[in-house]
Design brief:
Elements lengths: L6 E8 L3 H12 L9 E9 L5 H9 L3 E6 L8 H4 L11 E5 L3 E3 L3 H10 L4 E10 L2 E8 L14 E8 L2 E2 L5 E2 L3 E7 L2 E6 L2 E8 L7 E8 L3 E5 L2 E5 L2 E8 L8 E3 L2 E3 L5 E3 L14 E3 L6 E5 H7 L11 H11 L3 E12 L10 H18 L2 H28 L7 H15 L1 H14 L4 H4 L13
Parallel strand pairs: 1-2, 1-4, 2-3, 6-23
Antiparallel strand pairs: 4-22, 5-23, 6-18, 6-22, 7-13, 7-15, 8-9, 8-12, 8-14, 10-13, 11-12, 14-17, 15-16, 19-20, 21-23
Helix pairs in contact: 1-2, 6-7, 7-8, 7-9, 7-10, 8-9
Length: 454
């Protein structure tokens, strides 16, 4: 009997990907021939893009790419179309998922295929995803702020980081002393502690980059930015600093993990590329931004839960895979480059709402009641902290309260409450199919201290 050809299908979900999705597809085509693969097909599932990217893909790549168009934006779970049987295409042996803002280094797919084929128990293989930009550390020192009532150590706000004429604040690597992104009427910003380190992204081809750092303080202070003293406040100023220190590559994802409060995270996120992330290892869950899946794995476990739309859909599917006894492998010699912030929207309103909702829903579907309880209690605590720190305390100190984050968290938790009946039904069905107990699975969760985890 003649064996069927070993087919690899690569699925890319696109929504207004512009030039980035073209670069992604070209990097996929440049992988050919893939060692161990007889045929490779590329399927782009387009989520009703209106930037002309779907048409551009068809015009540039022709029959090398199949573009399947949705009438509406179905989120990342639109990948389900590409992960299922498609008329006119043979069923594959493997399915790879690749973000439209990622490009693959030479041999990436071959290394993932090799890792999966080396062990029949491996259902998914994750590459080492590195940010496309490199980073230069920039220290900022400033006296503590009298911005009263906030329990965090605060000094100044950074409101802009411009490198080579492009705003990069949303791509900054948060080192010690850099607080989470926030928004107000003037736009996005991050509070810095009295001593903080910003990882400033720079282009690999930028010869002598200079950063223009926009700082804000409610009072007049002297800050030291990259060794240069600058007067800040009251209100804002801009410090211009040459980025002369050593550039480093930083990791976007080295496989994923789940904390014992049910929150997921990118393993190694923003760590300097190198040890210990240069060693292959099993990981609890994988990231949908770049992964190779066995077709048998998908037939056993299923595809993404459609109601999750965006965020935690990959965590949910991987958790289900682990509950069926499948293993997930991180493969560092498979390299992928990711443009930070191009498609994920981390810190956006949609991110906060969907991340909050889906984290709670996924824990109900998959986790022990101990983890479920902590996830819901921690989210309630985070809502209380937003009420206290952003509404009550500012009002007591004569400042304008901000209810924006409070409303987003409330919407997320409210959405999770509405999804509870379906999640509880799925919990019972998934428990009946599980071959690995929750206690055994949750030995792979990472301990996290404190409350209000994202």
């Amino acid at each position: 009997m003649i064996s069927p050809p070993a087919v690899l299908r690569v699925v890319v979900v696109n929504f207004n990907g512009g030039q980035l999705v073209e670069d992604c597809v070209q990097s996929l085509l440049d992988q050919r021939p893939v060692v161990g693969v007889d045929e490779m097909s590329i399927v782009v599932v387009d989520n009703a893009s209106h930037d002309g990217s779907a048409e551009a893909l068809e015009e540039r790549f022709g029959r090398d790419v199949m573009v399947l168009r949705n009438l509406v934006n179905a989120g990342f779970v639109a990948a389900n179309v590409g992960m299922s049987s498609i008329d006119g295409l043979p069923d594959p042996r493997w399915v790879a998922l690749v973000n439209p803002d990622a490009t693959l280094a030479e041999g990436c797919l071959a290394a993932l295929v090799e890792a999966v084929e080396a062990d029949p128990g491996i259902g998914a293989a994750s590459p080492c995803m590195v940010f496309t930009h490199q980073f230069v550390d920039l220290e900022v020192e400033s006296p503590p702020s009298r911005f009263g009532g906030d329990p965090r150590p605060l000094a100044v706000q950074v409101r802009s980081v411009v490198v080579d004429g492009v705003e990069r604040l949303h791509q900054v690597a948060a080192g010690p002393g850099v607080h989470d992104p926030e928004h107000d009427a003037a736009g996005a910003f991050r509070w810095l502690a009295p001593q903080a380190t910003l990882g400033v992204p720079v282009g690999r081809d930028s010869a002598a980059p200079i950063a223009s750092v926009g700082l804000w303080s409610p009072e007049k202070i002297t800050a030291v930015v990259g060794g240069e003293a600058v007067t800040v406040g009251p209100q804002g100023t801009t410090a211009t600093v040459p980025l002369t220190r050593t550039r480093v590559d930083r990791i976007a994802n080295a496989g994923s993990l789940v904390f014992d409060d049910g929150s997921g995270a990118d393993r190694g996120h923003f760590a300097v590329d190198g040890p210990p992330f240069d060693e292959a290892t099993d990981v609890f869950v994988w990231c949908g931004g770049g992964v190779l899946l066995r077709w048998d794995y998908l037939r056993d476990v299923g595809t993404f839960e459609p109601s999750l739309f965006l965020y935690y859909e990959d965590t949910d599917l991987a958790w289900r895979g682990a509950s069926r006894g499948w293993r997930h492998r991180y493969v560092p010699k498979a390299r992928m480059f990711h443009v930070q912030g191009a498609s994920g929207g981390a810190g956006s309103d949609r991110f906060v709402v969907s991340n909050t909702r889906n984290r709670l829903v996924v824990t109900v579907r998959n986790a022990s009641w101990r983890v479920v309880r902590r996830a819901w209690v921690d989210t309630a605590w985070e809502i209380w902290a937003a009420l206290r720190n952003r509404v009550v305390v500012p009002a007591l100190h004569g400042r304008r309260p901000s209810t924006h984050r409070l409303a987003l968290l409330g919407r997320g938790m409210g959405g999770a409450v509405g999804a509870l009946p379906a999640a509880l039904g799925a919990r019972r069905r998934l428990a009946r199919r599980a071959t690995v107990g929750r206690d055994v699975l949750e030995s792979g969760l990472v301990p996290r201290r404190g409350r209000g985890a994202k």
